[in-house]
Amino acid sequence: MLGGARRADDNGPARLGHLHGQMADAADRRVHQHPLARAELRRVHLSVRTFSRRLREETGTTPGQWLNQQRVDHARRLLETTDLTVDRVAAASGFGTAVSLRQHLAATLGVSPTAYRQTFRARERPDALPDSGPAAGALTPR
C-alpha cells in the first residue's frame, strides 16, 4: 500500500457492524434526518458504494429502504402511543408531510395512519368490538 493507505475492504465486517449500529442509534435519536453522513463513512474509510453494498448484504435493503423502514417504525410507535396529529407524526418521523407518511404506511402496511391508530387502539382495549374494516388485521408488514 502506498503511504500507509488502507483499502476500504480492510476489516470490513467490523466496520459495517459498527456503522449499522450507529445508523440504528442515530435513527432512534433523529429519524427525521439522514442518520449517516458521508463524513462518517470517510472517517471509517468506507465509500458510499461499499457501504451500500455491505448494508444490502447484511439487511437485504438499500440505505434508503432501511431509512424509510426506520421512519415507518417510528411513525407506528407515535401512532400507538401518542395523540399527535398525522401531520405532527409525519414531521416527527421524517416524512415531512402527512401525504408522504400515508403513502409509505399504505405501501408497508396497507392502511392509513388513522386506520392504523384505530386498529391498534381497538386491540389494546379488551372491551372493544373487533373491526371488520380494511384495517382489521393489518398490523403486520406486507
From TrEMBL:
It comes from the Bacteria. Residues 42-119 form the HTH araC/xylS-type domain. The keyword Lyase does not apply. Residues 121-142 are annotated as: Disordered. It holds the Pfam family HTH_18. One of its GO terms (molecular function) is DNA-binding transcription factor activity. This is HTH araC/xylS-type domain-containing protein.
